[in-house]
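Many introductory courses stop at the sequence. We go one step further.
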Amino acid sequence: MANEQGNTTDDQIATGSPFTRPGFLISAVLVVVIVVLGVVVAVRVAGDNSSTTPPPASTSPAASASSTSAGPDASVCGLPAGTETGPLTSPPAVTWDYQGTIAYPKSPEFGAGKTATEGYRYCFQHSAAGAVVMAANALAQGSDPQMGESWAEYVLGTGRYRDQLADEIGAATGAEGSRLKVAGFRVLSYDGATARVDLGVQGSSQNQTLTVSGVYELVWQNGDWKISADVEHPLDISTIPDLTGYVPWGE
């Protein structure tokens, strides 16, 4: 696949990492697009025989951000929970703003409800729509080197892989000249405690365009949606031919 859109050298991989899923060598344009998909996991060589024993659960203070006194399901900033019970088949009603060149959604209903002193946005509604809005904000926030590290520290949840993922997570670099936009979404699963949100993202760089699926594994913890640290690969990224099956959404 690397040769279909250009060659990816070892130097490019080292410069762009962390950026991809296991054993997947990709073209330079895809490196640029994937490296800004919010939360990204370091390259793992296919056939790696290293131990898969999960690391112990983290006790990081940042993973235990304070919640409201009303219980673990209460919003960290008091946003009322959503009421939908079935699949999310229509897009959340939002307005769009920009972080750099990437548009992100915002809404008084779905969030973000708060902005930290470090500049990152947090507190999204406890609903499938809130999870979708959170994932789309992750696309923009993870691409911002000014706040990427502090945002990543907050957004990575408590779980057995937290320490491992914290070593691999970081702000994107080398994304100059690229453009990304949310073009659709699918809620693959939602039970209130967890959500799997598939963002359809269209990207362009150096006169090349592609469509990417980014599946975010989310968990409701401490009154907000977080990136799950209970799975080893909380973001699964792949190219897709088109957005068939996605709910159209975007600026």
